[in-house]
Amino acid sequence: MDDVIVRREFDWSETPPSIAIVTAIADIENVDPIDLPTTAGTTLYSYVDPGALDALVDGERVAVSFSMAEYRIRIDGAELTVAAE
Predict the structure, then answer these.
(1) Which residues of the chain fall below pLDDT 50?
(2) Is 22:33 a contact under the CB 8 Å cutoff?
(3) N-to-C CA span, the chain
(4) Across the chain, how many H-helices and E-strands are there?
(5) What are the sequence ranges of the domains in the chain?
């Protein structure tokens, strides 16, 4: 990935991927996750269906990547990586 900003491990049964992504980007932007749509000018739902993402990433053997605003999101097993594009 390009410039990694955040790399975290999660137990997806405890923290849904959609929540982890929004929280990580809100941390980078230094805002409350509720304020992220206003700050970033977009929502996760604009790029991917959060419910489908959470259903897909239910184990350790899944790898998913996509762009959201100026970030590149990658989930590989239990690891979430957010990088600047």
Answers:
(1) 1
(2) yes
(3) 8
(4) 3, 4
(5) 3-84
Please state, in angstroms and rounded to a whole number, the distance separating the CA atoms of residues 22 and 33: 6
Separation of alpha carbons 81 and 68, rounded Å: 12
* Torsion (CA) 66, 16, 40, 25 in degrees, nearest 10: -80
pLDDT of residue 41: 84
How far is 35 from 79, CA to CA, in rounded Å? 25
Q: How far apart are CA 6 and CA 8, in angstroms?
A: 7
Non-local CB neighbours of 30 within 8 Å, separated by 6+ positions: none
| 52 burial via Cβ count (<10 Å: 0-12, 13-18, 19+) | exposed
